[in-house]
Specification:
Number of strands: 6
Strand content: 25-35%
Oligomer: single chain
Strand order of the largest sheet: 4-5-1-2-3-6
Structural class: alpha+beta
Protein backbone atom coordinates (compact mmCIF):
# COMPACT_ATOMS: atom_id res chain seq x y z
CA UNK A 1 0.00 0.00 0.00
CA UNK A 2 1.97 3.03 -1.23
CA UNK A 3 0.85 6.39 0.05
CA UNK A 4 1.18 9.71 -1.76
CA UNK A 5 3.14 11.67 0.81
CA UNK A 6 5.31 10.98 3.81
CA UNK A 7 3.48 13.70 5.78
CA UNK A 8 0.24 11.72 5.40
CA UNK A 9 2.01 8.56 6.56
CA UNK A 10 3.43 10.35 9.59
CA UNK A 11 -0.04 11.70 10.45
CA UNK A 12 -1.52 8.20 10.21
CA UNK A 13 1.09 6.67 12.52
CA UNK A 14 1.08 9.61 14.96
CA UNK A 15 -2.64 9.01 15.46
CA UNK A 16 -2.52 5.21 15.40
CA UNK A 17 -3.79 3.07 18.23
CA UNK A 18 -1.70 0.12 16.99
CA UNK A 19 1.48 1.46 15.34
CA UNK A 20 3.01 -1.99 14.79
CA UNK A 21 -0.02 -3.14 12.79
CA UNK A 22 -0.33 0.12 10.88
CA UNK A 23 3.39 0.37 10.04
CA UNK A 24 3.34 -3.20 8.75
CA UNK A 25 0.28 -2.40 6.61
CA UNK A 26 1.79 0.79 5.16
CA UNK A 27 5.18 -0.75 4.40
CA UNK A 28 3.44 -3.70 2.80
CA UNK A 29 5.00 -6.66 1.03
CA UNK A 30 8.77 -6.77 1.46
CA UNK A 31 9.36 -9.77 -0.80
CA UNK A 32 11.03 -7.48 -3.38
CA UNK A 33 13.37 -6.00 -0.76
CA UNK A 34 16.62 -7.85 -0.12
CA UNK A 35 18.48 -6.60 2.93
CA UNK A 36 22.18 -7.29 2.46
CA UNK A 37 25.03 -8.47 4.65
CA UNK A 38 24.60 -7.81 8.37
CA UNK A 39 22.06 -5.01 8.02
CA UNK A 40 18.67 -4.76 9.73
CA UNK A 41 15.76 -2.89 8.13
CA UNK A 42 13.65 -1.01 10.68
CA UNK A 43 10.60 1.22 10.25
CA UNK A 44 11.00 4.44 12.21
CA UNK A 45 8.62 4.81 15.14
CA UNK A 46 6.61 8.05 15.09
CA UNK A 47 5.44 9.01 18.58
CA UNK A 48 1.72 9.78 19.08
CA UNK A 49 0.58 13.29 18.31
CA UNK A 50 -1.26 13.38 21.64
CA UNK A 51 0.98 12.68 24.64
CA UNK A 52 -0.09 10.43 27.51
CA UNK A 53 -0.63 13.64 29.51
CA UNK A 54 -3.13 14.93 26.91
CA UNK A 55 -0.86 17.52 25.27
CA UNK A 56 -1.06 17.80 21.49
CA UNK A 57 2.37 17.95 19.85
CA UNK A 58 2.67 20.44 16.95
CA UNK A 59 2.95 18.93 13.46
CA UNK A 60 6.56 20.10 13.17
CA UNK A 61 7.44 18.22 16.36
CA UNK A 62 5.71 15.06 15.15
CA UNK A 63 7.43 15.27 11.75
CA UNK A 64 10.83 15.58 13.46
CA UNK A 65 10.47 11.96 14.67
CA UNK A 66 11.17 10.88 11.08
CA UNK A 67 14.70 12.29 11.41
CA UNK A 68 15.38 12.00 15.15
CA UNK A 69 13.52 8.80 16.05
CA UNK A 70 15.72 6.29 17.86
CA UNK A 71 13.31 3.34 17.83
CA UNK A 72 12.25 1.25 14.87
CA UNK A 73 10.12 -1.78 14.15
CA UNK A 74 12.32 -4.61 12.85
CA UNK A 75 11.07 -5.50 9.37
CA UNK A 76 13.77 -7.62 7.80
CA UNK A 77 17.26 -8.99 8.52
CA UNK A 78 20.18 -9.42 6.17
CA UNK A 79 21.47 -12.99 5.72
CA UNK A 80 24.57 -12.36 7.85
CA UNK A 81 22.84 -10.40 10.64
CA UNK A 82 23.81 -11.54 14.12
CA UNK A 83 26.41 -14.03 12.94
CA UNK A 84 29.64 -13.93 14.95
CA UNK A 85 32.74 -12.75 13.11
CA UNK A 86 36.27 -11.60 13.99
CA UNK A 87 35.03 -8.17 15.15
CA UNK A 88 31.81 -8.99 16.95
CA UNK A 89 30.62 -11.87 19.11
CA UNK A 90 26.87 -11.77 19.70
CA UNK A 91 26.77 -14.66 22.17
CA UNK A 92 23.37 -15.72 20.87
CA UNK A 93 21.84 -12.22 21.05
CA UNK A 94 19.74 -11.01 18.12
CA UNK A 95 16.55 -9.17 17.23
CA UNK A 96 13.44 -10.65 15.69
CA UNK A 97 11.09 -9.34 13.06
CA UNK A 98 8.30 -7.45 14.84
CA UNK A 99 10.44 -6.27 17.78
CA UNK A 100 11.12 -2.62 18.58
CA UNK A 101 14.85 -1.95 18.28
CA UNK A 102 16.77 1.04 19.68
CA UNK A 103 19.78 2.51 17.86
CA UNK A 104 21.78 5.71 17.49
CA UNK A 105 20.34 7.83 14.66
CA UNK A 106 23.84 8.54 13.29
CA UNK A 107 24.48 4.81 12.89
CA UNK A 108 21.54 4.36 10.51
CA UNK A 109 20.95 5.07 6.84
CA UNK A 110 17.55 6.61 5.98
CA UNK A 111 15.40 5.06 3.26
CA UNK A 112 11.70 5.20 2.43
CA UNK A 113 9.83 1.98 1.73
CA UNK A 114 6.44 2.55 0.09
CA UNK A 115 6.45 6.09 1.46
CA UNK A 116 7.27 5.04 5.03
CA UNK A 117 10.47 6.32 6.73
CA UNK A 118 12.80 3.42 7.46
CA UNK A 119 16.44 2.93 8.38
CA UNK A 120 19.11 0.39 7.61
CA UNK A 121 21.13 -0.33 10.74
CA UNK A 122 24.14 -2.60 11.17
CA UNK A 123 23.28 -5.48 13.53
CA UNK A 124 25.91 -4.45 16.08
CA UNK A 125 24.53 -0.88 16.15
CA UNK A 126 21.23 -2.01 17.65
CA UNK A 127 21.77 -1.47 21.35
CA UNK A 128 18.55 -2.79 22.90
CA UNK A 129 14.96 -3.83 22.28
CA UNK A 130 11.86 -2.58 24.09
CA UNK A 131 8.29 -3.81 24.28
CA UNK A 132 6.92 -0.25 24.26
CA UNK A 133 8.56 2.15 21.80
CA UNK A 134 7.02 5.11 23.59
CA UNK A 135 9.38 4.78 26.56
CA UNK A 136 12.43 5.84 24.51
CA UNK A 137 13.28 9.28 23.22
Amino acid sequence: MALASSSRVIDLIANSTDPKKDITKIVGDLSKVQVKWNMVLVATYIRPQKTSGGIWRPESNVAEDEWQGKVGLVLKLGPMAYQDDEETQFNGESVKIGEWAVYKVGDAWSVNINGYPCRLVRDSSIKMTVTDPGIVF
